[in-house]
Amino acid sequence: MSPFLVLSLLFGLVFGQTASLCAPSEYTIHVEKRECAYCLAINTTICAGFCMTRDSNGKKLLLKSALSQNVCTYKEMLYQTAVIPGCPRHTIPYYSYPVAVSCKCGKCNTDYSDCVREKVRTNYCTKPQKLCNM
Predict the structure, then answer these.
(1) 2 lies in some domain
(2) What is the pTM of this model?
(3) What keywords are assigned to this protein (predicted)?
(4) Fewer CB within 10 Å of terminal CB in the chain, N or C?
């Protein structure tokens, strides 16, 4: 194998991971409870972006370990809590949500990530809206 080919392969592997555009991104979550008078719009950060993956078209020729499909997921996160306004006394008005501190390309962990993209997803308020800047 020629040295140029080996260097090109190594460069491609290293550059492939750094070329991934996975980073914390601003996102607005809309939260409401049936008992509360308002919907809360929370500005937070989530992990979003592109990660290099391997083509699964050659799955009959490759080992399963070589067919990893990486996703943009949390490397570090913390949780913050917001209070939903207009809730009666008997209702717990607190809502905790994740805040992405840093992100990475890796396997999707279903303990803290939604690994399936739904076709129809609603992220809007049906009640009067209050904005929460955290």
Answers:
(1) no
(2) 0.64
(3) Disulfide bond, Glycoprotein, Hormone, Secreted, Signal
(4) N
